[in-house]
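Severity: low
Component: inverse-folding endpoint
Summary: output formatting inconsistent between runs
Steps to reproduce: submit the following structure tokens with default settings.
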């Protein structure tokens, strides 16, 4: 140890003794603690403030970037129309109370014709086969009369499909049917109505006729009793000019028994499933926004709106799935 180091150490020991004699050690401890608390207190707000400021700034930036776009589809009215999106206006309506019945299609008796020769004779010509479509007045056979030995033509009495053929050229025609023609353009659906349903079913009521692949509207034309059967038959005309239906086809019928007036209804076709929720797209400034509604009773076609939509608001009805697709793209683009 050098002379300088020894002198410095001696001076420090002397100062320590002086301070110890003048100031109580307990007071020194309290002073040190107090000064330390002040230092910490002065520094803490700055650090916390910096963190909070950073959080608020990040939150604000995140909201500015995504908040306005979440649940919103930006699209002009012109582009929406070009895409085939059709809006509907929310308002009052009616819900149908229905009864479901089951039955099958039958051919009207006037739409079946059995073709016979007017006079007995030899069949010289038979030009149609099973499955052929014929037009009323069309020549379909020729017979040579046994009495006069003159030939005469046989024409189709109705338009329709040849479903049976009972003779051939070279055979004798007497009184037997040569052909059977059936017309399927107008069918009937015969529904079974059981005693528990009988009181609510009446002629004139609207019926939705449906199969697994098609649906149409009609109304009950006749109610007929059945001997030795516990049910009556409701006969409903079925337009088949497009050939959608077939004789003997099993069909479901939804009979409207009465209607209930509702202050605010929505067409169920507007709903789209997004993240497990049924939502609709309501028009707003610049496009559409998503809405989740609280619903009441429904008839399958329309639903009562309890909250989430106001009368007069417009919502996407036809092709709203296109908006759902855009919403999914926006969500994927902004995911972190």
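Observed output (run 2 of 3):
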């Amino acid at each position: 140890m050098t002379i300088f180091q020894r002198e410095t150490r001696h001076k420090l020991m002397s100062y320590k003794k002086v301070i110890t004699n003048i100031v109580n050690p307990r007071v020194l401890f309290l002073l040190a603690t107090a000064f330390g608390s002040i230092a910490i207190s002065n520094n803490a707000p700055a650090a916390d403030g910096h963190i909070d400021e950073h959080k608020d700034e990040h939150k604000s930036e995140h909201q500015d970037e995504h908040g306005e776009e979440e649940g919103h589809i930006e699209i002009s009215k012109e582009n929406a129309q070009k895409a085939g999106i059709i809006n509907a206006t929310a308002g009052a309506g009616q819900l149908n109370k229905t009864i479901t019945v089951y039955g099958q299609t039958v051919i009207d008796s006037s739409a079946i014709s059995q073709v016979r020769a007017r006079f007995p004779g030899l069949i010289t010509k038979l030009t149609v086969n099973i499955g052929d479509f014929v037009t009323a007045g069309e020549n379909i056979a020729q017979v040579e009369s046994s009495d006069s030995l003159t030939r005469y033509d046989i024409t189709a009495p109705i338009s329709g499909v040849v479903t049976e053929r009972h003779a051939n050229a070279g055979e004798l025609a007497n009184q037997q049917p040569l052909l059977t023609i059936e017309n399927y353009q107008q069918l009937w659906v015969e529904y079974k109505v059981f005693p528990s349903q009988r009181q609510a079913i009446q002629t004139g009521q609207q019926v939705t006729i449906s199969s697994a692949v098609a649906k149409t509207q009609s109304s009950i034309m006749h109610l007929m009793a059945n001997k030795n059967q516990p049910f009556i038959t409701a006969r409903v005309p079925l337009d088949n000019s497009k050939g959608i239906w077939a004789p003997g086809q099993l069909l479901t019928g939804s009979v409207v028994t009465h209607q209930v007036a509702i202050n605010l209804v929505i067409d169920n076709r507007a709903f789209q499933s997004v993240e497990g929720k049924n939502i609709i797209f309501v028009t707003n400034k610049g496009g559409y926004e998503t809405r989740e509604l609280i619903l009441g009773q429904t008839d399958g076609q329309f639903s009562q709106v309890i909250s989430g939509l106001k009368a007069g608001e417009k919502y996407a009805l036809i092709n709203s799935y296109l908006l759902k697709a855009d919403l999914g793209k926006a969500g994927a683009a902004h995911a972190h």
